[in-house]
Write a structure and sequence with these properties.
The chain is of the alpha/beta class and 517 residues long. 43% of the residues lie in helices and 15% in strands. It has two domains: 220 residues, 3-Layer(aba) Sandwich (Rossmann fold); 274 residues, Ribokinase (UDP-N-acetylmuramoyl-L-alanine:D-glutamate ligase, 3-Layer(aba) Sandwich).
């Protein structure tokens, strides 16, 4: 499903009205009806219920006026609270307000202290609140009366249904400047907006439904909209189907270059991630100093010791053997636990520049890819980069806070600049392609906030590439199923969940996905 940035949604609305001839009032009417239906689902029945509808002066407020009218017609005791100057109200909103006035609904402008008291009292006796104050066009700072009103609504303890997006949440990035409505449900119009899914906006959105308000389908499916949600059915269509007479040589040979003294776990997790996602063969190349430890931890992985002269990390003496191993590999996964030794970085750069197979670059190998003092590595294949926000900060020079506040924009910018697939990990991982295409993954859980999760993901993506998926497909499918596996593992408890728990359930999750369940 596509998700629309604010500018794209405004353009869709414009074209709907100007090119297709759908009246703006008709769109507003449809929006209001859909919100009313959601409120009915929430409350079970509407007759004799009490609902407060909070409206602004823009089109979002106009949607709210329509909601109020239809609720009133269904027997609801409606109170409408208007925030903003009536003289600045948009034409369609003003038209719907005029209808309410003719119907003699209870409409109150929030201006003086007594108005606040009335609003507080009305909330206390209501069954539900409707947030139609500010829509997707709002990008300023919530302050003054608006901030006070949003806080009043949140403190009322009543379920809130938001129209299009919770007031105070920025539609393009999910950021909240000071305060935002905390809705139990958001009815978003036409197409979903990124801010509904990206944190902290996701925490304010509650359940999300997408309302069909009459926008022509060609506008909603326009390929120029470059953002998509990663949905299970799409991932299912990507997954490799294994033939009944398949053998290991047909299921991909993954080479994992990883590990250093003190970091054996990362190497093992990455290799097992490749195995558990279905790779036929996995070779794990590690420094000789840690070979006995790593070999004792894995059974099905082919562990190859690399000469390290007792240093405990990969150095130039390993290059010849690494080049030999690369010749037999279908895909290279490099980085987990390698360390940041200068010699190791130099070896990684050589491998990345010479490898002709697809590659996943993670953890310490990301340092080598974008060293500030050296020219960025030029790879022969489009690499998959899997940074978490801290690594992305080191690679770009941007503050981690800025990256998290603009996950889509940052991932898109650097995927294009680096000619790479960027998997920007975190709550709601963003996958960006070099051509500007964006995919937002919704699977996962807070239990993934523990060491080794990213190493497993590296292996999973590599395993899928080895089985024939393109790097683009593997980044999407691997990220999604890694998150689904974490959700399944979390059923046994979020706190204390480990990367090994995710590995353990990966085959079952993959089987379920293949069956389309």
């Amino acid at each position: 499903m596509k998700i629309a940035m604010t500018s794209e949604m405004k353009e869709i609305d414009r074209r709907t009205i100007e090119e297709y001839g759908v009246a703006a009032l008709a769109l507003m009417e449809n929006a209001g009806v859909e919100v009313m239906r959601q409120i009915e689902q929430l409350l079970g029945t509407l007759e004799q219920k009490k609902v407060c509808v909070f409206c602004g002066k823009g089109n979002n407020g106009g949607d709210g006026f329509v909601v109020a009218r239809h609720l009133h017609n269904q027997g609801v005791k409606v109170k409408v609270f208007l925030w903003g100057n009536r003289q600045e109200m948009k034409a369609e909103a003003a038209a719907n307000l005029a209808v309410l006035e003719k119907m003699e609904l209870d409409i109150m402008d929030i201006k003086g202290e007594r108005d606040w008291d009335k609003a507080k009292l009305a909330i206390a006796f209501s069954d539900c609140l409707v947030d139609a104050l500010v829509g997707i066009g709002f990008a300023g700072k919530v302050e003054g009366d608006l901030a006070q009103l949003l806080q009043l609504m949140n403190k009322g303890g009543k379920p809130i249904v938001a129209v299009d997006i919770p007031s105070g949440v920025r539609a393009d990035n999910g950021q909240v400047s000071t305060v935002a409505v905390s809705a139990v449900h958001t009815v978003t119009l036409g197409l979903p907006k990124p801010g509904l899914f990206l944190f902290p906006g996701a925490e304010h959105s509650g359940g999300i439904s997408v309302a069909d308000i009459g926008i022509p389908l060609p506008l909603l499916t326009n390929q120029e909209i470059r953002q998509d949600l990663v949905l299970p059915e799409r991932v299912q269509s990507m997954l490799p189907k294994r033939k009944v007479d398949a053998h290991k040589g047909q299921c991909g040979h993954v080479l994992v270059v990883a590990g250093a003294e003190g970091y054996t776990g990362a190497a093992v997790l990455a290799a097992q991630g490749a195995l558990r996602s279905g790779a036929g063969l996995v070779t794990l190349a590690v420094p000789r100093a840690i070979y006995p430890i790593v070999a004792a931890k894995v059974t099905e992985v082919m562990v190859q010791p690399l000469e390290d002269e007792g240093k405990g990390y990969i150095g130039v003496e390993a290059l010849t053997r690494l080049s030999e191993l690369l010749e037999k590999a279908d895909v290279l996964a490099i980085g987990p636990g390698l360390g940041a030794h200068e010699e190791t970085i130099d070896v990684i750069r050589v491998l990345l520049e010479t490898a002709t197979c697809p590659m996943i670059i993670d953890a310490d190998a990301l340092r080598a890819f974008t060293l500030p003092e050296k020219k960025r590595v030029q790879t022969k294949a489009i690499p998959v980069l899997t940074p978490h926000p801290g690594e992305m900060s080191r690679m770009t020079g941007l503050a981690t806070e800025d990256i998290n506040a603009n996950r889509i924009a940052i991932a898109r910018r650097f995927a294009e600049e680096w000619a790479s697939i960027v998997v920007l990990k975190g709550a709601r991982t963003v996958i960006a392609f070099p051509d500007g295409e964006i995919h937002v993954n919704l699977s996962g859980t807070e239990g993934m906030a523990s060491g080794g999760m990213g190493d497993v993901l590296t292996g999973v993506i590599a395993g899928f590439i080895g089985q024939g998926l393109s790097s683009h497909q593997a980044a999407i499918a691997g990220t999604h199923l890694h998150g689904v596996a974490a959700e399944k593992a979390a059923l046994q408890g979020v706190q204390g969940m480990t990367a090994g728990d995710v590995l353990a359930v990966l085959p079952e999750v993959l089987l379920t996905a293949l069956k389309g369940q």
